[in-house]
Amino acid sequence: MKTLHVNVDGRGYPIFVGEGLLGRAGTVLSEVGFASAPVVVSNPTVLRLHGRNLIESLESCFGRVNKIVVGDGERFKTRATLSSIHDRLFQARADRHSWIVAFGGGMVGDTAGFAAATFMRGIPIVHVPTTLLAQVDSAIGGKVGINVPQGKNLIGAFHQPHAVLTDPAVLGTLPDRELAAGLYEVIKCAAIRSVSLLQYIERHIPEILARRALALEHIIVAAARIKARIVAADEKEKNLRMVLNFGHTMGHAFEAATAYRRFKHGEAVAWGMIGALLLGMELGFPNRQEYARLIRLIRRVRPLPSLKNIAFGRVWDALERDKKFRAGKFRMVLLPRLGEAEVRADIDPLRFRRFLKWFLLQGGNAETLLDAEGQRGIRTAFPSSTRNSPHAGR
Question: What does pTM read for this prediction?
């Protein structure tokens, strides 16, 4: 078992990564300091596949565990689900000394985490993530919340977990599409902070997709370490932590515009990364070869759901409601160089609007127009209104 630490102001917490960790969860959490039985929040699929292993381990150390079962999927990340968790906590006679284990993917972790943040003004939460995306991203860092019709994660809080327990073995039952969605988030971490991780993924993508234990553990630990360091430096997302949103500005809008039904979160982020790379080219960033390299890697993972027939108006409405829209300007994470993301707050909305219309009109496919060797860059055909506009500069 490998152990990482997230050092946030006032209180740090461990991230444990290891095969077979579900069966040792009770012992590990008792060593962290828990002494009473938790309330486990999960969904039917996860409980059916892995619940017995975790519950038996917890009950062997803490006694009878209460379970709260919620719906499976992003569309259940709602006020109704949050309210149902609160109601069930009261029915279980939970109090200010109770604690929650969020056992599932990002939807379970975000919603159960927000319930923990708001029940009795805050009770402890432990994340036991069961998707690759949750293991490398949503379970780490304390951002919890729910979606509303106006947009994704617009109601939420910062509520750091007391521990994260990651067992790569649970990924053996993860559908291929879910595994790919998580891998896009690993690629995001590599793109913003680690060329060496990017190189590892390029070399080992067959082993990762085949769920080889060593390859999975390597990318989980590497991506989790990147996020832990960024969160430790900027817990409340005042500056540096925003780089973790690479691909998310457009990605969140694509999710909201399609009612969270067409895309897995990681798939939307993948499209958002492609869009951000092309926008960077439009703004004058010169690194077309690096951008082509990253887009080819995204394409190697799995075919993405189409961007076709998504109403531009819905996407734009979601963007304007996004937390990253401020004072008439979009804040967006762009990639001047691989491994060196930066937050740009000077993107002109009219220019971005023209670019986004073009991107949706192309169905996102323009980035595949590589030269004959497929190595030297991307050929795109921006509309003349944007192609001939002056560069925004650095």
Answer: 0.88
